Amino acid sequence: MERMKPSHSSAKPALTERDIGVLQGLLDSVPAPFEPLDVSVLDGFLCAVSLHPVAMPDTQWLHFVTDSEGRPLPADFDARSLRSLVARRRAELMEAIAHRRWFDPWVFELDEQASPSESMYPWVAGFAMAVQQFPALTREASAELIEPLALLYRHLDPDDLEDADELLAEIETLEPPADLAAAVEDLVRATLLWADVTRPRAIRPGKGHRARRVVG
User: Fold this and answer.
1) Domain 15-198 classification at class level
2) How far from 119 is each of 103, 104, 185, CA to CA, in Å?
């Protein structure tokens, strides 16, 4: 699988392809019956956690990384390396969100026949998981979140969006993304729109400081 390439580097070095592979291996090493997230689902989850109106302590969300049901790991399981890589990625996402900068989501192109939504689904599913676990992400100014919600949740099965008529109507107004790159662009835009609601900046950026994807 080929990961979308970053088009804007953050102030701190991003996790490398090797780091991501190591992280996936560490997640895979979590013993049954625990159900760890894979790296793409994890990335969406971490992004939503980073958008929470109040910074959450690790103890509030970290257990979902190694088990989708939030069960605590056995005391004899050494998760230090796993948690260190997760912390680095969360810091990376929080910095990008705080400064309204482009970030490189861990979205993987499945194959040439896969639709953009099929490739986007794991990341969005992780984001949606966090939204379900932490209602404060949508509690305030929910009307202002319809646009970013639609940009993300259009990649989910409509049957999974219960009692969401307004959201489904908004999704219907959107043009399907032309390709995976366009879908990823919308993902980052949706994240930064969400941040404007739940984590507003003290001083609005002036013209020329809007987050954008740099092509080239």
Assistant:
1) mainly alpha
2) 17, 15, 14
